[in-house]
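Figure S7 source data.
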Amino acid sequence: MAAAIVATDLEKTYGETVALAGASLSVERGEVFALIGPNGAGKTTLVRALTGTTDPDGGSAQIFGESPTAVDRDRIGVLPQEFSPPGRLSARELLAYYAGLYDDARDSDDVLAAVGLVDAGGTWYRDLSGGQQRRVCVGSALVNDPDLLFLDEPTTGIDPAGRRTVWRLIEELADGGTTVVLTTHDMAEAERLADRVGLLADGRLVAQGSPEELVREHGGSSRLTIETAASLEAFADLGYLVERPERDRGRNPENAVVVRDIEPVEIGVVVDYLEAHTLEYTELSWSEPDLEDVYLTLADAAERERTDRLEGGDGGVDEGTLTQTGETA
Ligand code: ADP
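Tokens for the predicted adenosine-5'-diphosphate complex:
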């Protein structure tokens, strides 16, 4: 039986911008595959190439063994990133409207229940909260009970409770055998939902694997974060690698240091050191590497490679095309 998706060397250029530069992936039936990567990496373009809404310039894609434009539309559900249904239809009416596009659609009330919106079924779309609106949109991609569901940033803009409803919904669909491809900037979402994760950078899949595999290969070591105003030099005699936290970890790097590659049983050594050197601290927290570390490591490496290519002026890619894609998440 053919895989749900096989894409080989997909290329897509918009004017001078290279959106896909040879993207390859395959997704098995029943898998949940999360595409992650910086803004501008090509995630939406890849989803569009796989759903037949954009024509790649090179490479090939097959969905259930057929071209994306030839595959039976009843088998595919798509939630585009930008999707604004008419505001003056109720949630129920909207789902009924989308259901009407298919010969054999699910009952709209079942879909409303699946996305947790039974109570809001009669409310105009424009009067729903942002999270409820996104859940109606997710529901609209489910009306045809698809075998393969593409969700481009399904939970962006949804509050934590709404996000969990969508997560549970995706888990239920996956348990029922639906193949799901989703894009996300939320690493917790990818880690929780995905059987496999693909990291897209500069139009290529630079790593693919289960979250555990990716963390093992690229996540680095466990760490102890110390909230302290002390300088890095104050830790010179600790006997561990100590550095400032990465910029994207949501704290001021000047107010924390990170001790690398340290097991929980060794934390006492650090506490003794802090006390012996009268170094003040407000908090100690130990953590294992996670998908966010993988993301930061690989996205940084891709960014450095891109800069090197630009500075070197080689790599077979027109320099002018690369200046357009440098936005990072
Ligand atoms: P992502 O979804 O990872 O943020 P996109 O696939 O949206 O990335 O975009 C990849 C690159 O292609 C970006 O530089 C974007 O500006 C460009 N791009 C995408 N779609 C178009 C389009 N229709 N016209 C021109 N440029 C586009």
